[in-house]
User: Fold these one by one.
Assistant:
Number 1:
Amino acid sequence: MRLTLSFLLNVSLSLAQLTTSSLEKHVDSATLAHSYNPVKEAYWTGYPHHRRTPFALSPDGKTAYLAYLDASETDVHVQPINPT
C-alpha cells in the first residue's frame, strides 16, 4: 500500500511539471521517406485514434531514430532524425 501511494505521488508530481508551456511543437519538422497516415480507425470501436510512433534518442543526444508503419500498413520504416 505504501509503495503504491509513493508511486502515485511521484506520477502526480511528474504530471504537474508537464504543462503545455513546457512542451514545444515542431509541425512538419521531419520529412518522412514514405507516406504515413497518423490517424486510423480503432478496429474495436471504429473511432479514429492517433498512431504511436516509437522514437529513440541515444544517451549522448547525437543520434535519434523514428519508426513508423507506412500508409500501406505492410512495411515498418526506421528513419534517422536530426535531434538538434
Note: The chain is about 20% helix and 25% strand.
Number 2:
Amino acid sequence: MNEYFFFDLVLLNFLFSPLFTASSTDRELEAVNSEYEGNLFKDVRRITQLEKSTSDSEHPYSEFPSGNTESLRITPKQRGIDIREVLLDFYKAQYSSNRMSLAVLSNRMLLGFFFEKKILSNKMTMLHLKSQL
C-alpha cells in the first residue's frame, strides 16, 4: 500500500469538517501570499497576466488571478470586512455534497477499509448507490 495513503485519509477530514479557526485562516492566507510571491517572476504567470490585462475588462477572466496579503488581509480590513467571516459564509452557502466528488485510488480493497475505519457508513453507501440508479 502506498506509504502516504493513511496521511491522505487524514487530509480528508479537512473536507468533511474544516476547523476554520482564526489561526488556520491566517496560516492559509500566508500560504496563498507565498504562492503569489513565488509565481511573480515565472514566465507563465507573466504571459497570463498580459493576457488578462488586454482582455475585456467586463469579463471575469480579466480579474486578479490569485490573492495576496494586500487583497486578502489589508484591503478587507480597511473596508471593515472580516475575511474569516466571509470564508465561513462562503463555506455555508457553497459547500454541499451534491457539488463535490472524491476519488481515492489504492491497491487495497477500499470499500471494506472505509467501513472498518468508520470512514463510510452503510447509510452513505446506500445514498450513493441510490443516486446512481
Note: Residues 18-96 form one domain.
